[in-house]
Write a structure and sequence with these properties.
Strand content: 5-15%
Helix content: 55-70%
Low-confidence stretches: 185-189
Shape: elongated
CATH class of the domain at 192-350: Alpha Beta
CATH topology of the domain at 192-350: Alpha-Beta Plaits
Number of helices: 21
Mean pLDDT: 76
CATH superfamily of the domain at 192-350: Regulator of K+ conductance, C-terminal domain
Strand order of the largest sheet: 4-3-6-1-7
Largest sheet: 5 strands, antiparallel
Number of strands: 15
Radius of gyration: 27 Å
């Protein structure tokens, strides 16, 4: 083995050896459970125990890249949820994280742990790597990684077991419970589709464009007329389409708006949507690189192709279309037109090239630069003192803002959105390799001294927030069991838990609740991990 010593002293060889062995360990699966990227952390801790160390600059680079990818991914959904009923899941995620923080304070005091070790246990119990990054920045103590590494396995397993055992204990039909419970998913933002029979004589021979600009009707901005049904004809709704008395207009929009518009235009009619004249609806997924970042207004689909977009799905949520909506890869458009026109638009959005990455180096560099500067700025918190956001919090805050807007000046975020996963994965493993080798230097001593306290404390921090989260979701927010489970998985930032929840029934509802709660929990854990140091 002596021949390896000079090789291990070379930083690049050591780094890639840790990444390779960690990736192999992370892929090993026992009954569907695996360590994933955390395998890199465990391998790095072993090397650290034997005195090998990854350069701190590599660790900081990885942290910055990973946290920016997280912010860009969460930004669009995070701020949008703040304005809709989906904020219920965000509140639930906050309660779960706050409960975890309170239990962490109790565990740290009861077992006489160091603050860094206690916060590290919390981030492992909640399976939050961004939280670990924030904890290392706040405490400046690598022992936080030890707490994370010890609590993480039960953090993963505990959520999966909770998801699988809870429905069996309740002995409830999840499908009937879902149908009987009204939750906030798709309630406020979900569009309504109705058919209006035109009876208002003032609309006779008026075009749809004239209807749109008429002061009496233009107040209903959320409403889109997708089709005009005249006798046995089904007409694509274009700007120059003429309306006649007796026509049936298929209107899509927010419930309140379409009902008010209906009262002014005519009466609600029962119409069977048969595919007359080959006019059909179709779901089209945005994939083309050149479409990302453009608005529906810029694309002019109705004028150029005779295609009307009535609704948009993103992240499991359905929204009424808006001319200002900027496309992201993965958006699903519900479009209405003839088969041939829909084929043309589908080709437009699918793109000619299979480009899946497009890292905009100028944008990425500016986000990192501004984020690091923001992280260095002192923030005065009354009664707590002055803190800084650090290399984790600063880039996260800036990436959230830029991810929300998509483009600010020369900075383009959503144009390289498909690369977020690549940037995040590379950054994460670089960070875990550095954090692991640093933490590994004292891992044996800590485990020997505090072994039981670490394991028991981590289990408490995993279990109690889930119980509190379930109680609040059912009693306070009146959510269904399946929505509650999905939101708990999001609040615990547990992807394996979501996988177990998705197997409970054939529905995307767990994933929708998870997607709504996850960004909030991700950000709250990173913030609380830095603030908690003042209470320990």
């Amino acid at each position: 083995m002596d021949f390896l010593t000079p090789l291990l002293d070379e930083q690049l060889f050591l780094l890639f050896l840790i990444l390779f062995l960690g990736s192999v360990l992370g892929k090993l699966s026992v009954k569907g459970l695996s360590l994933g990227t955390s395998g890199v952390l465990f391998v790095a801790m072993i090397f650290g125990h034997f005195g090998y160390q990854i350069n701190e600059t590599i660790q900081q680079l990885g942290l910055s890249l990973f946290i920016v990818a997280v912010g860009l991914q969460a930004g669009p959904r995070f701020f949008r949820m703040m304005r809709t009923s989906g904020v219920v899941f965000g509140i639930l995620g906050l309660f779960i994280v706050l409960t975890g923080a309170i239990v962490t304070i109790f565990v740290t005091k009861a077992f006489d742990l160091t603050p860094a070790l206690g916060i590290g246990i919390m981030t492992g119990a909640l399976t939050s790597t961004p939280g670990l990054a924030a904890a290392l920045q706040a405490t400046n103590d690598p022992i936080a990684s030890v707490g994370y590494g010890i609590a993480y396995p039960f953090g993963v397993l505990g959520v999966v077991l909770f998801v699988q055992i809870l429905p069996k204990l309740l002995k409830t039909d999840l499908k009937k419970d879902l149908e009987a419970t009204s939750g906030p998913i798709r309630n406020e933002e979900s569009p309504e589709v109705i058919t209006i029979k035109v009876t208002n004589p003032s609309l006779n021979k008026m075009t749809l464009k004239e209807l749109h600009f008429n002061q009496q009707f233009n107040q209903y901005n959320s409403v889109v007329i997708s089709r005009v049904i005249r006798g046995d004809r089904n007409i694509i709704a274009l700007g120059d389409t003429v309306i006649l008395n007796g026509d049936h207009l298929v209107a899509v929009g927010l419930k309140e708006d379409v009902e008010k518009l209906c009262s002014q235009i005519g009466v609600k009619a029962e119409t069977q949507f048969e595919n007359h004249d080959h006019i059909v609806p179709r779901k089209i997924t945005v994939g083309a690189e050149e479409m990302i970042g453009k608005t529906l207004r810029e694309l002019e689909l109705r004028r150029k192709y005779g295609v009307t977009v009535t609704r948009i799905e993103r992240g499991g949520f359905e929204y009424n279309q808006s001319p200002k909506w900027r496309m992201e890869r993965g958006d699903v458009l519900l479009a209405v037109s003839s088969e041939d026109r829909l084929n043309d638009v589908e080709k437009l959005f699918s793109g000619k090239n299979l480009t899946v990455t497009n890292v905009h180096i100028l944008s990425l560099s500016l986000i990192l630069l501004i984020g690091i500067l923001a992280g260095m700025a002192p923030i005065n918190i009354p009664w707590l003192g002055t803190i800084t956001l650090g290399v984790a919090g600063g880039p996260l805050f800036i990436a959230l803002i830029i991810g929300h807007f998509g483009k600010i000046g020369p900075i383009r975020a959503r144009y390289f959105q498909p690369s977020n996963q690549v940037i995040g994965d590379i950054g994460l493993v670089l960070f875990l390799a550095g954090a692991g080798t640093t933490a590994g230097q004292g891992v044996v001593e800590v485990v020997m001294e505090e072994g039981f306290g670490l394991l028991f404390g981590g289990a408490l921090i995993t279990i109690i927030p889930m119980i509190v989260g379930y109680f609040l979701s059912r009693r306070l927010f009146k959510l269904s069991i399946i929505h509650s489970i999905g939101a708990i998985c999001g609040g615990m930032t547990s992807t394996p838990g979501l996988g177990a929840a998705s197997q409970l029934m054939e529905s995307d509802d767990p994933a929708i609740a998870y997607a709504a709660a996850y960004p909030f929990a991700l950000i709250f854990i990173a913030i609380i991990a830095q603030v908690l140091i003042f209470f320990l």
